[in-house]
């Protein structure tokens, strides 16, 4: 069901918008991602948009796989024409399951180094990958 | 902030043929309001804000900063953070002033704006609704020429989305870079409360 237009930002009328960046981060709880997903999903995309940057970082709670699955579908369908995507994840957030990695260009790996092999294996699908290992911490 | 030398130091930062282009004022501890500043300090800050060379201003943690401080300034980049924080995390966000006397009739030529919605410029839609039926023309929106907008939310429910959309509506024709930040402070606060009572 389509949500009310008051539940998401309408970006389609921003006729000069070239870059959209979404940052959701919390170190002790998990923000509600529903409205964010709705904004990405139901807002029309300005034809000028060429860069989409998403930074998701949660160290306290896991991102629900359903949330990421929703974003994954949106990115691979609606935003497939965007020429540059910069998806910046904290991998531990996704340690419950496989990470869809086809368009990940930047990973800040704090804890889950066990995910790196699967990320590296997807490198052939990605135009640009940058791994920034900014810290390591014994388990 | 009660240092008597501070106004003199701020005055030295600009003059008739020189001046700083970037000024950051961050109050990280204590509850300091604009009204609570000394008259000398308020006047020196006002003079600096109106320096034609000042292009970028960050103000953080100075409560109840008045809109009028920016009337007629030439500032192109604002970062205004924690200006009128909500008393409770789940309360409504800061509303623009309903007093048309406080609207900016000579707004700064803003190109870049970072906000957590604790300081809000009256949008065109807001000013139209206030001035509806009066003879006063709706002033120009300070947001009309924004190229970069960064909005930080504590949550992203309908009232916050509504306010952000009004801001977007004012800069539809100029905006080319939008950054949306969701910080999730409400759940953080509730979790801390829960931990406190279960301790």
Word description of this protein:
The complex is a heterodimer of chains A (139) and B (199). Chain A is 20% helix and 22% strand. Chain A has 139 residues and is α/β, with parallel strands linked by helices. Chain A has a 5-stranded parallel sheet with strand order 1-2-3-4-5, with no helix packed on it. In chain A, strand 1 (19-26), helix 1 and strand 2 (51-58) form a beta-alpha-beta unit. In chain B, the strands form 3 sheets. In chain B, strands 3-5-7-8-9-10 form a 6-stranded parallel sheet, with no helix packed on it. The longest helix of chain B is centred in the C-terminal third of the chain and has 13 residues, at 158-170. The model of chain B is unreliable at 186-191 (pLDDT under 50).
The residue-averaged pLDDT of chain B reads 86
Strand/helix succession of chain A: EHEHEEHE
Number of helix segments of chain A? 3
* CATH class wording of chain B: Alpha Beta
The appropriate CATH architecture of chain B is: Alpha-Beta Horseshoe
Give helix % range of chain B: 25-40%
Number of strands of chain A: 5
What's the quick description here?
By secondary structure, chain A is of the alpha/beta class. Chain A has helices spanning 34-42, 65-77, 116-121, and strands at residues 19-26, 51-58, 84-89, 104-108, 130-132.
Helices and strands, with pairings:
The complex is a heterodimer of chains A (139) and B (199).
Chain A (H helix, E strand, L loop, with lengths): L18 E8 L7 H9 L8 E8 L6 H13 L6 E6 L14 E5 L7 H6 L8 E3 L7
Parallel strand pairs in A: 1-2, 2-3, 3-4, 4-5
Helix pairs in contact in A: 1-2
Chain B lengths: L5 H6 L2 E2 L2 E2 L2 E5 L5 E2 L5 H11 L6 E5 L1 E2 L13 E5 L30 E4 L8 H8 L16 E6 L4 H13 L6 E6 L2 H13 L2
Parallel strand pairs in B: 3-5, 4-6, 5-7, 7-8, 8-9, 9-10
Antiparallel strand pairs in B: 1-2
